[in-house]
Amino acid sequence: MKKLIIGNWKMALGYQQSLELAENLVLSQPPRPLLAEVVVCPSPVAISSVANILEGTAIFWGAQDAAEQTPGALTGETSLESLVELDCRFILLGHSERRQFFNETDAIINAKLRAVIERTTIKPVVCLGEDLATRQFGQAEEKVSRQLQAVLAGIILPADRELIIAYEPIWAIGTGQTSTPEQAQAMHQFIRQELEQLGYPNNRLLYGGSVKPDNAASLLAMPDIDGLLVGGASLTADSFWPIVFAQ
Ligand code: PEP
What we know:
It is a single chain. The longest helix is centred in the C-terminal third of the chain and has 18 residues, at 181-198. The radius of gyration is 17 Å and the shape is globular. Strand 1, helix 1 and strand 2 form a beta-alpha-beta unit. By secondary structure, it is of the alpha/beta class. The protein has one domain (3-244): Aldolase class I (TIM Barrel). The chain contains ten helices and eight strands. The protein has an eight-stranded parallel beta barrel, surrounded by six helices. The two termini are 13 Å apart. Helix 7 (140-151) packs parallel to helix 8 (181-198). The site of phosphoenolpyruvate has 13 residues, from strand 8.
């Protein structure tokens, strides 16, 4: 299966900047066979216009979040139905910044995941990972296991759907401190075993946390790393394309 590389533009770019980046990506795509599946997740205001630019190219687009509720009186929220209209193919759920700054709990992420699976065909990318203190106490696997069980509680995944998990150790996000490929591989192997035990054999596992052009190849070489979720380095075509072509 192709590696999956997702760029998370967060709220880092304005509307015009998002369009410029999408145009730059299209114009600067290296003229070599693309071995990876490539996705960018702009902020919600820019998804529609970015989609117009990327339509017909090799780059897909997705969303960074959505409400679990059906459309209605929920000021400020984005519905899954509107993301379906925009042909979003992927959606990030439970990013650590949503957990940290918007109080998203595993229960909320579980409700969002259920809504995505029941009401759309968008591919969910569930983000999780431990903080530094938890790793230092030797409890990273325990923490990740608890997160997995909580976000997947009661979720029935139809046989034709896949579950994508992005393992993003919080201490590596935006810090410049990357998990070593071996550390990431060990956790991915653990997550894969847990998913199989929980009854989700159809899965893909992404690593995220300070991925850069110079560390992407060694991460992608690991057998249980099926792709990357890239934040800061997805904000310029100059750093994103080398990551996409790093294998
Ligand atoms: C992210 O936002 O998911 C992320 C991994 O960010 P960064 O690559 O900047 O660490």
